[in-house]
Design a protein that fits this description.
Layout lengths: L1 E7 L10 E5 L6 H8 L4 E12 L4 E10 L48 H7 L5 H15 L5 H18 L3 H19 L12 H8 L4 H38 L13 H18 L2 E5 L8 H20 L7 E5 L6 H9 L9 E2 L4 H4 L5 E4 L5 E2 L8 E5 L10 H9 L2 E4 L2 H4 L11 H12 L4 H4 L10
Parallel strand pairs: 5-6, 5-10, 6-7, 8-10, 8-11, 9-11
Antiparallel strand pairs: 1-2, 1-4, 3-4
Helix pairs in contact: 2-10, 4-6, 9-10, 9-14
Length: about 450
């Protein structure tokens, strides 16, 4: 049993404006939880959120209130961390939920250093189920925890090294030219990795790029990722040290009065919600048949966004999640391979993944393709419709491929009512997949469009 309490502030706020968000793991309501906890005390988050009030038809500023103890993510060092990363390791009930469901949005695996080309080429014949069993057996024999993702990385690195060693004469000549080009760019002062730090995997990826500008962008991306990884490691070290000091200060002679909620319990409850959605939930389709139209970096970005889509849909507190359908997932789909590697340590990925088209799964009259070029406007969320979102990431050409596909297949195509509610800046109205799932979840909850569009970055608006 747990409860997250938020209190609306302002001169017109009343007792009815108290917003309760429940997770009844043992059948107790949030009001009963307040009776058990007594008065709210000890700590209030400084971060203010805005939550829609159905009674006042407006957004109300709210603050997260903790019962007695505060979570690890409430400190100055960690409160601005990405909410998709699980930071809460507190041992009390109130603290386990004060990072705004950060542990609900847990990243299952971090493999951002693996490119789409490397994954699709060197993991085709890897049996992940068999490899998982081998890792479990080895872990039991040695008594040491072994991560499956580490074993996959070792296999990929080994195969990349073999690919570099087995290059033909033209391949070795091309590799040598690329290495000289990289040395020249490095000597010119570009913020790119040191030549000694370039791995075989990086060279395999660079050899797939056709122009010098593309390779320079790739090298800059590698260096930026190196800095981010270094900063993340420093944050983790500081967080670990702070948690150790806090645990020393919070030791009680007779334990704690709050029941500890384990991460495993949270995952079970969230998976139960997804399993229920697969039986009774509203379907939401992601069209995965765009791989041939994307470059390797765009394929990787699409896979990361789809993983965020799964986590956000899984952790949405407002309503039951969508039943996600990933259609057009052929065995050699590079985006699908990336998703498989990212989620390989999670045995419960509760969604429908199929090679079939959405035309074969649903009635044609129910299908609605969402595209920024659509002529019709989506006025409100239709629970009887099956909405389709193109799993497409195109920063270069930005062609209306989703609209063309909808017209070719003869299904309805709609756009979000962005022009009717927002003043857009210059540029296309393409949104990322994680922004789309946030908007669709709010639209499904019958929130006004202005509230749902708060997930659009302000830099895109006037």
């Amino acid at each position: 049993m747990c409860s997250l309490v938020r209190r609306a502030k302002g001169p017109e706020a009343s007792q009815r404006d108290l917003l309760f968000l429940n997770v009844n793991l043992i059948g107790l309501s949030s009001k009963m939880a307040l009776k058990i906890f007594g008065r709210v005390q000890s700590f209030v988050l400084t971060r203010v959120y805005h939550v829609y009030s159905a009674e006042k038809q407006c957004l109300l500023p709210v603050q997260t209130v903790c019962c007695r103890n505060y979570a690890s993510s409430n400190c100055e060092r960690t409160k601005n961390l990405n909410l998709l990363c699980a930071q809460s390791q507190s041992h009390n009930l109130g603290g386990s939920f004060l990072s705004y469901f950060s542990c609900w949005n847990r990243k299952l695996i971090f493999t951002r250093h693996m490119s789409g080309v490397v994954i699709s080429r060197f993991t085709k014949d890897i049996d992940l189920d068999k490899l998982r069993e081998e890792v479990k057996q080895e872990s039991r024999e040695t008594g040491q925890p072994i991560q499956l993702v580490d074993r996959v990385r070792q296999l990929v690195a080994q195969r990349c090294a073999e690919a570099i060693a087995n290059l033909d004469e033209d391949g070795r000549k091309k590799l040598r030219v690329l290495q000289l080009e990289h040395n020249f760019l490095y000597s010119e002062g570009h913020d790119i990795p040191n030549p000694d730090f370039m791995s075989d995997e990086n060279w395999v990826e660079a050899m797939e790029l056709s122009s010098k500008s593309q390779r320079l962008k790739y090298y800059l991306h590698l260096q930026k990722r190196f800095h981010l990884k270094k900063a993340e490691k420093l944050k983790k070290a500081a967080h670990k040290e702070e948690m150790q000091n806090r645990l020393k200060q919070e030791e009680y002679e007779h334990g704690r009065i709050f029941m500890r909620v384990y991460d495993q319990t949270m995952r079970r409850w969230l998976n139960y919600r997804l399993a229920t959605a697969m039986k009774l939930g509203t379907p939401l389709v992601f069209d995965m048949d765009y791989v041939d139209l994307m470059r390797p970096q765009e394929q990787k970005n699409t896979a990361h966004q789809l993983h965020d889509v799964y986590c956000l849909n899984r952790a949405d507190p407002k309503q039951d999640p969508f039943h996600l359908h990933f259609t057009g997932c052929h065995p050699n789909n590079a985006v699908l391979k990336l998703m498989q590697v990212k989620t390989q340590d999670s045995p419960f990925l509760l969604s429908t993944v199929t090679e079939k088209s959405y035309m074969d799964l649903f009635d044609k009259d129910r299908l609605v393709y969402l595209s920024p070029q659509g002529r019709q406007v989506m006025r409100e969320f239709d629970p009887e419709a099956v909405y389709i979102i193109g799993a497409f990431n195109d920063k270069a050409s930005q062609k209306p491929v989703s609209y063309a596909r909808a017209m070719e297949q003869g299904i309805k195509c709609q756009r979000l009512p962005i022009d009717e509610h927002l003043s857009w800046n210059q540029g296309t109205k393409n949104l990322t997949l994680d922004q789309m799932i946030r908007i669709m979840l709010d639209a499904k909850s019958k929130l006004p469009w202005k509230i749902a569009f708060r997930h659009i970055p302000q830099r895109k608006l006037r």
